[in-house]
Amino acid sequence: MRKSRRRKPMAEINVVPYIDVTLVLLIIFMITTPMLQTGVQVELPQEASAPIEQKEDTPPIIVSINAQGQYYLKVDNQTDEPIQPEAINARVVAVLANKPATPVLINADNNVDYGFVVTVMAALKNAGVLSVGLMTKPEDK
Fold it and tell me: Cβ neighbours of residue 138 under 8 Å, at least 6 residues apart?
């Protein structure tokens, strides 16, 4: 005289595995994010200057020159890519064709020979850039 009982479905959701996965992903992102934000190491000259206003929708094109005289190009907040001085003109023209209001900055090491900076400025002028900004770091007080 056994009565058959039907099992009721459980209405609870076990969230412990979801919390574990979320914490693991959080740790992974915390470790990898600083690695993604590295750039070319340059020692900027120190000068007092006014900061440039940056629009959110148009990140600047940054041409970097490190102490060894190697050129790097950073477009749309991507990572710095090594580039030859002859290729700067073509890359900047391509970017400015899509976004003509994009600001262009030169990020040169303090110990770089002046000729390297002039080479970049000439390439940018040939690309049709009207205004070029030179990056500095604020003076220590």
Answer: 46, 48, 49
